Amino acid sequence: MKKLLLFLGVMVLFKLTSCDVLDDDSDYSLDNFSLSSGTVLMDVDSYSIKTDNGKVLWPSASNVSVSLLEDSMRVLVNYTILGEATDNDSYDYYVRVNGLSKILTKPVFEFTSETTADVIDSIGDDAVTIVDTWFTDDYLNVEFEYGGGATVHYINLVFDAENPTTEDGAIILELKHNHNGDPYSYLQWGIASFDVSAFQTAEKDTIDFFVRSKGKDGAYNYNQVLTYSYGSASVEESINKQYDTENVSLLQSIQ
Predict the structure, then answer these.
(1) Are 116 and 83 in a shared domain?
(2) Do residues 223 and 184 share a domain?
(3) H or E stretch at 236
(4) Residues 172 and 230 in one domain
(5) pTM for this structure?
(6) How large is the C-alpha radius of gyration of the chain?
(7) By three-state DSSP, how is residue 132 classified?
(8) Do the domain assignments include residue 249?
């Protein structure tokens, strides 16, 4: 498991423009838009996005340069549905991409007996609220809220080798937050995807994770057991993941 603290921006917004493809008499209005998390699927000179709900979007209109994207990149996509892709088995919807943001992806950070106090301090122990969690392939996705508004914050999912499991054997993973001296001015919102594949073993095909975080009162909250399936037990689950479109205005830089 990697033990390096990765400072990667959670949201890199690509500004887009696009032409109107359907008129207002269509079943799908150009005034409507949806917000979904998903994974980029690259082709030679184009791309599609598989949302965490399992639907595949093909951008009929988008000014996102393919050179800015990578296969398997985790993204938050703002899009307008132009029509159902009834003529193509590979896609579910033709869409206009209105905006695309890169979701922070990181390995789980491990605390060991050799981890220095400075490193632990840099990871932070500030309040953060987990809103939701779900799996996408080998990623544990965490939607969260915190207070801030002025500077870059740091977010990590931590495994403590000195306190590895619950009494029931679930591996403890704690969402850690360093507000970097930023006062609680506004409610902020974000998503991060953490690679948990390093926990896989040949003897098992499922792992229980006990996920938690600390609130403003210093008490642990969320406290959910999540089952990660892989190998022969891996199945594609249908996730009804929805976002409040007002959250777009709450995005702040997270590393």
Answers:
(1) no
(2) yes
(3) none
(4) yes
(5) 0.84
(6) 19
(7) strand
(8) no
Angle at 72 between CA 69 and CA 77, to 5 degrees: 65
Q: Measure the CA–CA gap between 33 and 30, rounded to whole angstroms.
A: 8
Instruction: Please indicate, yes or no, whether residues 81 and 154 belong to a single structural domain of this protein.
Output: no
Partners of 41 in the beta sheet? 48
- Identify whether 252 is part of a domain: no
Residue 141 dihedral angles phi and psi, to the nearest 5°:
-90, 135
Q: What is the pLDDT of residues 100-139, one digit of tens each?
A: 889 999 999 999 999 999 999 999 999 999 999 999 999 9
| CATH number of the domain to which 73 belongs | 2.40.50.500
Q: Is 124 left (phi over 0), alpha (psi -120 to 50) or beta?
A: left
Write out the two tokens for 236: 């594609």
Nearest to 188 by CA among 125, 245, 250: 250
45, 163: one domain: no
Residue 90 structure tokens: 């590979």
Looking at per-residue confidence, does 240 or 39 come out higher? 39
Pick from 221, 196, 202: nearest CA to 211: 221
Q: Which two tokens stand for residue 237?
A: 């689950």
- Strand order across the 186-195 sheet: 104-107, 186-195, 139-148, 129-136
In a domain, residue 98? The reply is: yes
CB 84 within 8 A of CB 55: no
